[in-house]
Write a structure and sequence with these properties.
alpha/beta; single chain; 42% helix; globular; TIM Barrel; binds 2-phosphoglycolic acid; eight-stranded parallel beta barrel; 11 helices
């Protein structure tokens, strides 16, 4: 089964509303008709900070660009200072949400259990989800990468049905590769992607494993994207730094078009 590639930009805590709208215009200017990501090409997504989302949605009008958020809380509402609810994201009009990024796990106390709770909430609000998993350098060195990743994926997916898997994307992001310029080799990434797909087969079925998109993230850029995207189990990228540069992001989208 051919999985449509997904090129997703994770803007993290970058871009004010004005800067974000300008970035969208600059990305669109990289494509002749204003937008060439559609139809046969990869699905393209950007995930700006919450306060930038409305301006980005406006700037993306008439273009197939999808807009997502970087977090969601599991409660409907209440005393959760600094969090955001599914209704709030629905009102904004985002289609995706990133959950469990290693920066959230590392700096904000995100656990496998809260990741699972957020995934449930996102699905209940008809949002597609990008679940991030990844090992530390110590874990890779200790040879426990696959065990760590399999644990993170299984726990994130607890209670998620085979039908709901149609709205789930997994992003493999080795922590040592995020923002460091030290990208995983094509072989290292493909190995883990294969292991994740094998796990999905065990947890669900061959059909679900075959249909689920698994992205690579961690220093993916305009130079290394083509090689990574050519791997049979790498179905796209979750891109931080390079997604803030219109030419680099456009080059990655074009690489996915060819892959
Ligand atoms: P990076 O970030 O591309 O800047 O390494 C990727 C991510 O954290 O999603």
């Amino acid at each position: 089964m051919a999985r449509r590639k997904l090129i997703a930009g994770n803007w993290k805590m970058n871009m004010t509303a004005a800067a974000g709208a300008k970035l969208i215009q600059d990305i669109r200017a990289q494509f002749e008709c204003g937008c060439k990501g559609c139809a046969n090409g990869p699905e393209v997504l950007v995930c700006p900070p919450f306060t930038t989302i409305a301006a980005v949605i406006e700037a993306a009008k008439g273009c197939c660009l999808n807009v997502g958020a970087q977090n969601i809380h599991w409660a409907e509402k209440g005393a959760f200072t600094g969090e955001i609810s599914g209704d709030m994201l629905n009102e904004l009009g985002v289609s995706y949400v990133i959950i469990g990024h290693s920066e959230r796990r590392q700096y904000f106390g995100e656990t496998d259990q809260t990741v699972n709770q957020r995934v449930q909430a996102a699905l209940a609000h008809n949002l597609k989800v990008i679940i991030c998993v990844g090992e530390s350098l110590e874990q890779r060195t200790a040879g426990v990468t696959n065990a760590i990743i399999e644990g993170q994926v299984s726990k994130a997916l607890e209670g998620i049905t085979a039908e709901q898997m149609a709205n789930i994307v997994i992003a493999y992001e080795p922590i040592w590769a995020i923002g460091t310029g030290q990208v995983a080799t094509e072989e290292q990434a493909e190995d883990v992607h294969k292991a994740i797909r094998a796990l999905l087969k065990k947890l669900y079925s061959a059909a679900v494993a075959d249909a689920t998109r698994i992205l690579y993230g961690g220093s993916m850029n305009e130079k290394n994207a083509a090689g990574l995207l050519a791997q049979p189990d790498i179905d796209g990228g979750l891109i931080g730094g390079a997604s803030l540069k219109p030419e680099a992001f456009a080059t990655i989208i074009k690489a996915a078009l060819k892959a």
